[in-house]
Write a sequence for this structure.
């Protein structure tokens, strides 16, 4: 029987598996469930092009391992001077083998630029000639990304001003209501709420709870997010006697239930391990997956998207996901977004969860990063799926291309769509 691509839906021979899997993955657009992208109309927050790419905080951290420049001197430089310093240290004087370096090489190549160059002049000229709206379309097309979820920090004044001014949105960039201060720094959150006219007290009393709930309701109304989100430290515990646990229980979870919004918990950061490096100075710690299990158990009406930063937590997160259908593990986050680790995590997820997980998100801060992050992830996911199918064939299964397409569709689109829109999405993947 011919499929939608005109090829026969015949049984796949083991020797053809790698090409078939790679082909399906490369032509299936992905829903990128966590990025730091903004529409071009959010001008100051829109980030694209070579200087932003080369000054990515992952590369700033790497600079100080390959150059003796002082941290203070680096921060005193303009962005293009910083990019020149990083380029010289990591791409000219050293071979750019790290994943973050390789990413820049991959993006340059995709735009027809020669990465074997001593200066960034050509790249600057090329990126300056691309209009922001065209840039978004082009990057998404090159990356094979159909949709992206932003990270919309409702406590950030710069960002809030764009929402207040009605800056136009992009139809393929979906909002995610990010609320780190509410759970991690109640005093800061209270100050912002007070400034915006919501009455709060320093403790979590009835007034503060009602104000914070109204604040979230108002932002949900304005943003129409696909989920709410927070980044939590490695020592996050639930339940516990803490402000965070009370905010979670009395403000965030009821809001999630009322608006039918999943809560994305990204757990495991150890903030400011080296504060002088700013964004590049955060580290990782071992998290408590039993707390994830308890929050899922106690709140069956809430849905939780969970990504954990430590490699050592990944197997436990798979096991927890087997116990709770209101838990959806996603992505290989930040320090895990390296081919060797993505491979390991994807293998264990396929073995423990079948196709019931979201394999990756890009976390792209700079638009063009979606090109390399998805190219690299697709390669690894292809290798991982190929091995799983090969094992299945050995055990006697007859595999067809439409089965592979169904699996990839579920991993790249269906699981997220079903989990975030349980009322409207097809129930094929996730039934209540
Ligand atoms: O991966 C990153 O770029 C981190 O700095 C964080 O942004 C992290 O992804 C987050 O969303 O907190
Ligand atoms: Zn992120």
């Amino acid at each position: 029987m011919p499929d939608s691509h005109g090829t026969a839906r015949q049984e796949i021979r083991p020797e053809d598996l790698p090409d078939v899997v790679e082909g399906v993955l490369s032509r299936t657009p992905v829903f990128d469930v966590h990025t730091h992208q903004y529409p071009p109309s959010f001008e100051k927050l829109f980030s694209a092009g070579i200087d932003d790419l080369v000054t990515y905080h992952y590369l700033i951290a790497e600079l100080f391992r390959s150059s003796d420049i002082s941290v203070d001197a680096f921060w005193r430089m303009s962005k293009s001077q910083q990019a020149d310093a990083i380029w010289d240290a990591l791409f000219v004087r050293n071979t750019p083998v790290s994943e973050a370096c390789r990413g820049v090489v991959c993006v340059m190549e995709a735009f027809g630029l020669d990465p074997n160059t001593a200066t960034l002049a050509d790249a600057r000229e090329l990126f300056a000639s691309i209009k922001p709206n065209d840039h978004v379309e082009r990057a998404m097309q090159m990356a094979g990304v159909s949709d992206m979820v932003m990270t919309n920090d409702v406590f950030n004044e710069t960002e809030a001003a764009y929402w207040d001014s009605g800056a136009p949105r992009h139809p393929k960039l979906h909002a995610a209501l990010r609320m780190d201060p509410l759970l991690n720094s109640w005093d800061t959150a209270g100050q912002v709420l007070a400034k915006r006219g919501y009455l709060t007290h320093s403790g979590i009393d009835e007034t503060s709870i009602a104000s914070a709930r109204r604040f979230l309701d108002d932002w949900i109304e304005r943003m129409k997010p696909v989920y709410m989100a927070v980044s939590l430290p490695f020592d996050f515990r639930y339940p516990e006697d803490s402000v965070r646990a009370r905010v979670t229980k009395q403000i965030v979870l009821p809001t999630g239930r009322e608006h039918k919004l999943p809560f994305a918990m990204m757990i495991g950061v150890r903030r400011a391990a080296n504060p002088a490096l700013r964004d590049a100075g955060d580290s990782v710690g071992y998290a408590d997956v039993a707390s994830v299990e308890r929050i899922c158990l106690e709140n069956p009406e809430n849905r939780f998207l969970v990504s954990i930063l430590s490699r050592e937590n990944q197997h436990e997160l798979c096991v927890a996901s087997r116990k709770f259908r209101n838990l959806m593990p996603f992505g290989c986050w930040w320090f895990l977004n390296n081919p060797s680790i993505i491979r390991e995590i994807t293998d264990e997820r396929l073995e423990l969860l079948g196709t019931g997980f979201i394999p990756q998100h890009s976390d792209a801060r700079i638009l063009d990063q979606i090109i390399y992050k998805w190219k690299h992830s697709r390669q690894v996911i292809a290798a991982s799926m190929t091995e799983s199918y090969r094992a299945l064939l050995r055990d006697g299964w007859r595999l067809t291309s439409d089965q592979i397409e169904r699996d990839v569709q579920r991993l790249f689109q269906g699981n997220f769509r079903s989990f975030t829109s349980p009322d409207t999405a097809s129930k094929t993947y996730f039934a209540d």
User: Anything to note?
Assistant: The mean pLDDT is 95.
